[in-house]
Amino acid sequence: MKKIHKVPADGLKGLQENFLADLNAGFLVFLIALPLSLGISQASSFPAVAGVFTAIIGGLVVSLISGSKITIKGPAAGLISIALASVMELGYEKTLAVVVVSGALQALFGFLRLGRFADFFPSAVVHGMMAAIGLMILSKQIHYVLGVAPHSKAPIELLKEIPESIQRLNPQTTTIGVLSLIIMITLPFMKSKSIRKIPASLLLLVLVAFPLSFYFELDTAHQYTFMGGTYFIDPSKDLVDLPNDLISAIKFPDFSAITSFASIKYIIMFALIVSIESLLTVKAVDFLDPYKRESNADKDLWAVGLGNMICGFIGALPMISEVVRSSANVNAGAKTRWSNFFHGLFLLLFVAFATNLVHHIPIAALAAILVYTGFRLTSPKEFRHVYETGWEQLLVFIATMVTTLFTNLLAGVFAGLLFKSALQLLLGVHWKNLFVLKYNISEHGDKTRIEVLSEVLFTNVLKLKKLLNNIPLGKNVELDFQKAEFIDHSSMEKIRQFERNYSAKGGNVDIEGLFSHVAFSAHPLATHKIFPNHVVLEKVLNERQKSLKKYADHIGANYKPDNAFDLYKYDGFLFGKRLVYRSNRIIYQETKDSPKLIIAEINLVEGAQPTSKRYSTTTLLVNNLIENIPDFELRKEDQLDRLKQYIGIDDIDFGDYPIFSSKYLLKGNDEEKIRELFTPQLIKFLEENDDYIIESKHQDLLIYTEKQAIMSVSEVSQLFNFGKDLLGIISKNQHSNISEDIEKE
């Protein structure tokens, strides 16, 4: 089993050990959280400061008691539609009472250990709900980008109203909104890596929002003419409205209507949606965590519930474990829960001492951030990704989304669950097996064999998960699905997740019997079904796979086209992304004692659902290095890296080799050993072959390029040759050092 690097300590010891890393991550998350919190508040018809209050409570209070280490707690775009509807129906103070009671209900969920029920909700239903939320956000906020307050309330009617808003647009606020939107859209496509690292919201505020706010004098009520038309600027409508002191912004809930049908409806909606989103985010961020820590879902649910009770009592928005900021937190190098704490502290200091600056943020700029967020939630890519998992998943996705748009989130989720159950019955699942799981389990020494005898569905997968979680670590587990006539997508996710996690902890998992099934798509987690009289066909290689096999045969390597989920082999490497599976492996090893070179196509998810980015890339993993080499990371240096060096972030340079030192960023904890490894021969070799990023972790090497795409066969050949040459130089250097040590003795 791969050795995992040291897990950061928790509590005050963790603060002491990782102060600078968590402070840096907290500051970067603060830059993202400030405009998002303000924008979500405005969109929810809460006071602008309400969302900031939520993020502050999430950072300063909930982070210290939560069951997760690096998830960020705060307001979320996914709750805008519920909060807005509640305020419009009940009013602001009565909605605060709803938030308090729903928080108590969430805390109760945690006490009752109901966190496991997040696995009950199929991903197609959750994604359909989020897509509907995205469309709701987009349809509303696009009008504010144009500087216009819409008349309609329903998403479809709001979309129809866009032409009218274009005719009524305010040129100055529209300029701010459109330029902000352009920054949000184009930044991810910038070629400069250093520019892409800058938070889009920070770039938006610095380049557009603040300068144009002052230039157009948005803080002063006035009228102006443009192309023959007269337009009005109203600071109370065009700029963020913050009170002069935070104490005066505190509002208390009104419980007078808490037992009404409307209040109970929103209590259930808040409690259910907050719980589902939070639990799914916590699990997604656990995948991103480079230290592979497992969150306590029930404790986290309890902590978020308590946080929401506090939020409701002081006039703040409800909070969840938030996707975008948590992903940014991981990518910024957060080590412990203190990064969340620092993000809340920075927010508190900023709104307390920079109120006037916050007041100059245009509403149109915040609306642009939300429009971009809404589009990502409901973009065509989401439809395509769902379709790739299977046509039936797309039907469930659309059914959930459409029902949500025309009713509400609660009705949409239940409609999605009912639709998926009905669809499975139509596909041949027996209704008696919806909530029943039949299996045989046998033990033979260190071997555990489980034979599944009935369909495995989202409605009974919790029983399978409980069964698998009770297997002691270190066993050889066989899962036989030959007699399971139907395995849905949700169940395939849980099965592969168990395979990955159990193997990473030292066990071995063999999944058998799927050869007799027909997959509903080429996706590795697609629904599988046994059809009567189905003839199992031998896997046919496509043209690319044939070329890869031919190349593997040429170099004397083994070729394996199938998907593999043993991704614990990549633990510790700085992908900053979630690895899903690998395929098209070329495995080369000269002798049983030689290092093993594995070229594979790695499928990754950058960020967390539902705003994630998915792609595949080719890597070379070198296992079982005989030489004792230090941990390091080597990649091309960019402008941001050079800037960091000026503020004291080290880069190991070699004065005698200025070309190498200016070209590469070299990092590692043991500088002395790194300097011993990087001999003149190795430095010269790397100067001539600068296409690759190299990481060394615990006697393993990972070699890849910045290009987020699968390599051609010729590029695979170049990668393999580079790896062999690199190992040859390292081996020669190590043997030379050993000889020198012997001579000295």
Report the β-strand fraction as a percent range.
5-15%
CA radius of gyration: 28 Å
What is the terminal separation in angstroms?
A: 36 Å
Mean pLDDT: 87
Question: How many individual helices?
Answer: 29
Structural class: alpha+beta
Total beta strand runs: 19
Biggest pleated-sheet summary: 8 strands, antiparallel
Low-confidence stretches: 738-745
Number of domains: 4
Helix share, percent: 40-55%
> What's the overall geometry?
globular
Give me the side-by-side strand order of the main sheet.
12-13-14-15-19-18-16-17
Question: Would you write up a description of this structure?
Answer:
The chain is an alpha+beta fold. The chain folds into four domains: 11-384, no CATH class; 394-426, no CATH class; 432-529, STAS domain (Transcription Regulator spoIIAA, 2-Layer Sandwich), CATH 3.30.750.24; 544-744, no CATH class. It is built from 29 helices and 19 strands. The strands form five sheets. The protein has an eight-stranded antiparallel beta sheet with strand order 12-13-14-15-19-18-16-17. A hairpin with a 7-residue loop joins strand 13 (578-588) and strand 14 (596-606). Helix 2 packs across helix 16, helix 6 (123-145) runs antiparallel to helix 21 (409-426) and helix 20 packs antiparallel against helix 21 (409-426). It is globular. 45% of the residues are buried. Mean pLDDT is 87; it is low at 738-745.
